[in-house]
Amino acid sequence: ANVNFLFRKIVHLTAFGFLAILFYNSFEKNRFLRAWIITTIYAATDELHQAFIPNRTGSFWDVGLDSLGALLALLALQFLQKYVVRRKKG
Asked: What's the confidence (pLDDT) of residue 89?
């Protein structure tokens, strides 16, 4: 059961990280903040929706985990853009 729990949480982090990157690429201004906020709002509405599904529960912890996944992915993206891509150009 612990492996399943850990796997599901890793999937939350990863999926919402990718979603945040997609949102990031959708904007030209305030990309980081907009992507993070929209991803977090989506996570909250997803958990709210789950609260109405039989045999499912909505979780504030999952919203936090999804938001963290988005934040970590966006930070990694900025790091890659700032240090890795520029280093190759320079």
From this structure: 64
